[in-house]
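Researcher: I'd like a candidate sequence for this fold, 143 residues long. If you have to choose between options at a position, lean toward the conservative one.
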């Protein structure tokens, strides 16, 4: 896996993945930025949410759950000192669909956290307390 990060100006950078996808990262105006994109540390949090979501959805599909929507709500806390590393990250998955089995959703979230999500497991190995939870929205019982 490769990426290239190019400085644009101020504290603005363009990052391109090895597969050719680009994203702009920028800082806040009080640090010389123009607020054109997410901060680099925000990218890590978004990447973690994407990695875990990929796992959860993949497992739910394999267990034949009819998922209509899946949202990973990620909340991260950072140390007050420099370097301002992550200390805690919580992922809450809100999974929507008709007749979803709670046991299957919980199992998918658990397996992602403990076995499959490289980003989550890497964060934990670095000393970050990573926790997970899930909620199910059953569209079968909606009126």
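Model: Candidate sequence:
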């Amino acid at each position: 896996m490769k990426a290239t990060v190019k400085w644009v100006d101020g504290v603005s950078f363009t990052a391109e993945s090895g597969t050719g996808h680009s994203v702009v990262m920028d800082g806040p105006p009080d640090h010389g930025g123009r607020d054109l994109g997410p901060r680099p540390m925000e990218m890590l949090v978004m990447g973690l949410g994407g990695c875990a979501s990929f796992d959860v959805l993949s497992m739910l599909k394999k267990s034949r759950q009819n998922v209509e929507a899946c949202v990973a709500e990620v909340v991260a806390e950072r140390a007050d000192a420099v370097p301002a590393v992550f200390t805690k990250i919580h992922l809450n998955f809100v999974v929507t669909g008709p007749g979803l089995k709670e046991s299957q959703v919980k199992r998918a979230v658990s397996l992602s956290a403990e076995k499959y999500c490289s980003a989550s497991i890497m964060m934990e190995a670095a000393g970050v307390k990573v926790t997970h939870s899930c909620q199910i929205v059953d569209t079968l019982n909606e009126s």
